[in-house]
Write a structure and sequence with these properties.
Elements: H1 3-31, H2 40-50, H3 52-55, H4 58-73, H5 87-101, E1 117-118, H6 123-131, E2 137-142, E3 145-151, H7 152-161, E4 163-164, E5 167-168, E6 186-191, H8 196-208, E7 213-219, E8 230-232
Parallel strand pairs: 1-2, 6-7
Antiparallel strand pairs: 2-3, 4-5, 7-8
Helix pairs in contact: 1-2, 1-4, 1-5, 2-4
Length: 245
């Protein structure tokens, strides 16, 4: 390979690096529309504090920002760079750019088996379901409309209030009665097309309002009268760190 061909190849790698870097910078600007300062590292620091997914790329992107400064601000002349990224680095930043431009959908981290109960189910049926399930949150529906989120605590409170002479009469008692023994839980419904960055923003909104988002139920279009496709709790956000591996 002669020197001119090598220079052209190096230039092409540098340009690909710049394109990927600029795409990432654009995503960071979109995630922080109210930030007056749009410097890359400023936006990266803010975004990584809000988004686990971006935090997982923080170390690489910080190094890429240094390399980008060398490429752009220390250019000797048109199409001539003082530093050139190798192909492995270019492929890596292009992969990150793709992942940030099209983040994974929420179903990637959702628990896809959602055990639901009807408000008309007997409490005996509820007890048996909870006893054989590994989950501790159960959406209760009245017909096809979400009614409330049932936890083991509400069932325990109901049982305690209905003990008489060492026995509990379950006759004619239904799941709907448990609603009065359940604390109010903040539940949101989202579309299966929501991405994980938008999901993290949703949790952050509740946090800023000093409210805890207990569960996110994923449906086709984000409606509370649709069949649940998955459920996400705050613990599931930990899985976001693993999505780019």
């Amino acid at each position: 390979m002669n020197s001119s061909m090598k220079v052209q190849g190096d230039s092409a790698l540098s340009e690909r690096f710049e394109v990927a870097f600029n795409n990432i910078h654009h995503v960071l600007k979109q995630l922080n529309p109210h930030e007056y300062q749009d410097a890359f590292m400023k936006l990266l620091s803010i975004s990584s504090r809000k988004h686990h997914f971006i935090q997982s790329f923080y170390g690489d992107l910080k190094q890429f920002a240094k390399l980008r400064n060398a490429l752009v601000h220390e250019k000797l002349q048109t199409d001539t760079y003082i530093a050139t990224p190798n192909e492995e680095i270019v492929l890596q930043i292009e992969k990150i750019a793709r992942q940030l431009s099209a983040p994974p959908k929420v179903m990637k981290i959702a628990t896809k088996t959602v055990v639901t109960l009807q408000s008309t189910h007997s409490i005996e049926y509820v007890i048996k379901t909870m006893a054989t399930s590994s989950y501790n949150q159960f959406p209760i529906y009245q017909d096809h409309q979400f009614s409330f989120l049932l936890t083991e605590g509400a069932l325990t409170n109901w049982l305690a209030r209905h003990i008489k002479d060492g026995q509990i009469n379950l006759t004619k008692s239904t799941a709907d009665e448990l609603k009065g023994y359940e604390d109010e839980h903040n539940v949101s419904f989202v579309s299966k097309n929501m991405n994980i960055l938008e999901l993290e923003d949703l949790f952050e909104q509740f946090f800023q309002q000093k409210r805890k988002l207990e569960a996110v139920i994923v449906t086709e279009n984000g409606s509370s009268n649709e069949r649940p496709l998955g459920i996400i709790t705050p613990w599931d956000l930990i899985e976001i760190d693993l999505l780019h591996l």
